[in-house]
Design goal:
The complex is a heterodimer of chains A (537) and B (230). With 537 residues, chain A is mainly alpha-helical. Helix content of chain A is 67%, strand content 5%. The chains are: A mainly alpha (537), B alpha+beta (230).
């Protein structure tokens, strides 16, 4: 191997202590490095990397206030400011890299423990520079989209049984999976596992099984991996995906929850937890995970204005629906919306959305005047040609919060026409309507109705009720379903299985229908008939 | 501790304070190494003072790291990440970390290990065990240390040997890693051995478990510390 040339290397040293920066600078000079830049904070480090690429970055994990080394690495990778050939070394005073690194997804090339000596630094840099030099043909092939060239080179390296074969094997496995060459990936991982049960190969094999559709086997493997190594985060992600594919949403949530418990700093997992908890109607978890997402977003490159907007929307609807979620505060939601407006570059419609939500929250809080003011402001900034369904519905929500029901209903009718050909939008719209308009929800209701009516006919009133209740949760204003519930309860009353609770339940279902319909409604006569039957029963 | 509000977890307070001390000692060591680099000792007496300074600071640093690690072991905060590593690299890292100490004491350290030999272990934990043993040998050896690594009986066997007086009988008789109260009272905790044994035992593979062993059968004539990882 040719000698490594330190003279031409450009190095960035990031540490909040100037004494440490100058110590490292001294060490680098003694190794012959001449081009050294210094950063005293994460923000500085990132902006220097924007200006030019560095061969080596020595970044302390702890950078005082603001972003830490992990944030810097995450952002450099996310924004592609770190070339494949660049070296990122995390420096820390921690005893074990595990403590610092185990809870993160972005791995540095290496990790160096303080105190650093000239010799340790040289050894690490030598090793990594040699590795990158050996890998260079692979990186180049990948940059030219020559995947097969890269695979061939990696295959050669994997079989060489030298210092680089392990690194090459890991990378080759990833590449096979990415390119859908599952049989080759399976062979590679199986071979590695014949030697020793290592986590990376077990996970690789589980991923292959999952991609081949063998979800049960993948699950067995994944459960074994996390049992042996409870801190191996990627395994939880793949396991969550496995449950997702099985359609087991509660399991998805509990798996993501396990990963979040290990790695509370991972913003993307918090977001995922919030999303799945929302689908599971676990509002406590959804709100608390979304709150963490917003807070982590303050320093993370993965922070988004949408997180604050979603938070405000979720808080509003839980309060409107009187769901009594612990620790929910109107002030907090408003604060996040303000912060989002300050921190992120928002287009006109996102700004309008923030204003609509602020207004909605004020309306819920009983401050109609403030709400009206925000609504006006939102109307001024809105770009009417580029409204999306979410913004449209936020608009409807504030109208409803201000008790402008006529206006809201008129708007909903317009939206039905506007989104006629957009099933995803129609599904969102369904939540506001008495009768769903999207195909998927119509079919589901028809299906459940058939099932419920069949059970009712066989006198299985409780099972029929459970059926209708499922739909009522999704469409609390659906007249047909409400009437079916009332009819089933009357059936229960007639069969003599009744108590006061059933009577009250029946009464409140009919009262709700009364508030939803008028004599012109197609279901009105059926409603009147059920009213009479309820009194007779 | 009578007041309810004082109900704090003392071990946690201790741990965070140890963490702080460790960082300070780290800075102290780095500065000291800078001083030694810039102004090499001019007399044997000065070299001796430098090496004492460095050795004692290193010892405090290692001791604090061990305390933290043990605290984490007990509280299950200690993730063990077993992966394949080159044994030579891990040894070389620890030698580099202690190279000033070895140089100022005039100790010659040799490594006997095939540089393509790889094995499965947690490199930080095993690294810290090697580091402690090397620092300890540097204190007792006359002039030489030998670190070896090879595969014996399908397990990785690493030894650190020296040409010092060897380990005292009391230590050889005691099962490695046991802390004995009477010794603690005499100020000899042998925390390092306890720590090394714990870490070795974290490495398991098909019913076999890692262990450490002490003897005085070194090729160099002094003590021999052996670490075996399945």
């Amino acid at each position: 191997m040719a000698e490594l040339n330190y003279k031409d290397l450009s190095v960035l040293v990031a540490d909040d202590f100037s004494s440490f920066r100058s110590i490292v600078n001294g060490l680098l000079q003694s190794l012959g490095v001449t081009k050294v830049d210094m950063a005293s904070s994460g923000e500085d480090a990132i902006s220097l990397c924007q200006e030019k690429p560095y061969d080596v970055i020595l970044c302390d994990y702890n950078l005082g206030q603001g972003r830490n080394g992990q944030h810097v690495l995450e952002e450099l990778r996310h924004r592609s400011l770190l070339g494949k050939e660049s070296i990122f070394i995390m420096v820390s005073a921690e005893a074990a890299r595990n403590i610092v690194m185990s809870a993160y997804d972005c791995e540095p090339d290496d990790y160096l423990m303080k105190p650093i000596t000239a010799r340790s630094l040289q050894q690490r840099m030598d090793r990594l520079l040699r590795l990158k030099r050996v890998m260079k043909p692979v990186y180049q092939a990948l940059e030219q989209s020559n995947v097969y060239g890269a695979m061939d080179r990696l295959t050669e390296m994997s079989l060489a049984e030298d210092r680089y074969s392990l690194y090459a094997q890991k990378m080759l496995g990833e590449l096979f999976i990415r390119e859908g060459q599952l049989d080759k990936a399976e062979r590679l991982y199986t071979r590695a596992l014949e030697v020793r049960q290592v986590d990376w190969a077990r996970l690789g094999l589980a991923r292959v099984k999952q991609l081949k559709g063998d979800l049960d086997l993948a699950e067995t493997w994944l459960e074994r991996i996390v049992e042996d190594n409870p801190l191996f985060l990627p395994a939880y992600d793949v396991l969550a995906e496995n449950w997702e594919q099985k359609g087991e949403r509660l399991h998805v949530q509990s798996t993501v929850q396990r990963a979040v418990d290990i790695s509370p700093m991972s913003i993307l997992r918090q977001k995922r937890l919030s999303d799945v908890a929302l689908l599971n109607k676990d509002f406590d978890t959804a709100i608390s995970a979304l709150r963490k997402t917003v807070r982590l977003g303050e320093l993370s490159c993965h922070g988004k204005a949408e997180d604050s907007i979603d938070f405000a929307r979720l808080v509003s609807s839980t309060i409107e629906q009187k769901l009594n979620v612990a620790g929910v505060s109107i002030a907090e939601a408003l604060e996040y919306l303000d912060a989002a407006r300050d921190r992120y570059e928002l287009d006109a419609n996102r700004q309008a959305q923030c204003k609509l939500l602020s207004g909605r929250i004020h309306a819920i809080d009983g401050n109609a005047e403030m709400a009206e003011h925000f609504l006006e402001e939102a109307n001024m900034v809105m770009d009417l040609d580029a409204l999306d369904i979410d913004l449209d519905l936020d608009h409807v929500s504030i109208l409803l919060a201000l008790e402008k029901n006529k206006e809201a209903n008129a708007r909903l009718d317009e939206l039905k026409v506007k989104y006629m050909h957009d099933q995803d939008a129609l599904q969102k719209l369904d939540e506001f309507l008495t009768e769903p308009v999207s195909d998927a929800n119509r079919e589901m209701i028809a299906e459940v109705n058939r099932e419920g009516i069949d059970l009712y006919k066989h006198g299985e009133f409780d099972a029929a009720l459970a059926c209708f209740e499922r739909v009522r949760e999704l469409f609390p204003k659906h007249v047909g379903i409400q009437l079916n519930i009332a009819q089933t309860l009357i059936g229960k009353l007639k069969s003599g299985q009744a108590d006061d609770k059933v009577v009250n339940h029946c009464q409140s279902s009919l009262d709700l229908v009364a508030s939803l319909i008028d004599p012109d409604h197609p279901q009105y006569s059926r409603y009147c008939q059920l009213r009479r039957m309820a009194i007779a029963a | 501790m009578t007041d309810k509000n004082d109900d704090i977890d003392f071990s946690m307070v201790l741990a965070s304070s140890v963490h702080d001390m460790k960082n300070s000692v780290g800075m102290l060591l780095a500065s000291l190494e800078g001083v030694i680099e810039e102004t090499p000792p001019t007399s044997p007496a000065q070299a001796h003072r430098f090496s004492t300074l460095h050795y004692e600071a290193s010892r405090i640093n290692s001791e604090l790291i061990q305390l933290l690690t043990i605290y984490r072991m007990q509280n299950d905060f200690l993730p063990v990440r077993i992966d394949e590593h080159f044994v030579f690299d891990v040894i070389e890292d620890q030698v580099a970390r202690n190279h000033i100490l070895l140089e100022t004491k005039g100790i010659n350290l040799d490594i006997e290990c095939d540089d393509t030999l790889s094995w499965y272990f947690d490199q930080d934990l095993i690294g810290s065990v090697l580091h402690n043993v090397i620092v300890n040998c540097a204190r007792y050896t006359k002039s030489a240390i030998l670190v070896t690594a090879m595969i014996e009986d399908e397990m990785l066997a690493m030894t650190v040997e020296d040409n010092g007086p060897g380990y005292p009988d009391a230590m050889l008789r005691r099962p490695a890693g046991q802390i004995n109260d009477s010794l603690v009272n005499e100020g000899q905790t042998h925390l390092g051995l306890f720590f090394a044994d714990k870490i070795a035992s974290f490495h398991k593979q098909s019913n076999r478990c890692g262990y450490i062993q002490l003897n005085n059968e070194s090729k160099l004539g002094g003590g021999c510390f052996k670490l075996v990882i399945p």
